[in-house]
């Protein structure tokens, strides 16, 4: 079963349980991947978080009930998981642009967010250039922070972390230390859910051989084969576009599986395009 089929099973589960209190663990279990990787993959493919997708679908169904039935607003609020009519009305207005009472009174048009159907892209005209490399264990040194990966909270924190690394001179320091098998700076997401629920660790690091320098931490990635893709075009849009293409086109079309260790975003330095390193088996 490929990633697209797995994600579709998880989407079907969400649709079947929209009126229930689902957990991300229950949803990701349908796709047979960790909550961290499920949320990350889902957001890359759909440009929306899991939580936002569920909210939009519930409020779409709520709008249908509002316009096609005489159910009270307080009953609809309870049906679709809101504690009070006020919180329901606020969420309804944020999505549809009008309040529930206005929609019912004027039979106003509302927005419909339909059930997702994820498919492999059939464009296929643009080639994906990649190479397969095998690396012995890679030791990284750098800085790390722990973030929640719920609702994309880590994305905001990671951007700020890179900005701080630049202004503090940490990026330059890591570039100077780089003496390992991969050139440049690395961005690495490490799932920490087994240690601390809904947490991930993010590293800004470099490949380094030697004693760990003062003030830095170290992290070792085991022997693995990697599929290496070059990012072409303006950042960060081209990086996100390539991630989506890898998941939706490359994996379903090739005989590889994800090796289950962290992926790498590699920034070799001026004059060299960034890269995405995917661990494969």
UniProtKB/TrEMBL annotation:
InterPro entries referenced in this protein's UniProt entry, alphabetically: AraC_E-bd, Cass2, Homeodomain-like_sf, HTH_AraC, HTH_AraC-typ_CS, MarA-like, Reg_factor_effector_dom_sf, Tscrpt_reg_AraC-type_HTH
Keyword Iron included in the entry's annotation: no
Pfam families per UniProt: Cass2, HTH_18
Claim: Repressor is one of the keywords in the record: no
Superkingdom of the source species: Bacteria
Xref: SMART domains: AraC_E_bind, HTH_ARAC
This protein's name: AraC family transcriptional regulator
Source species: Paenibacillus xylanivorans
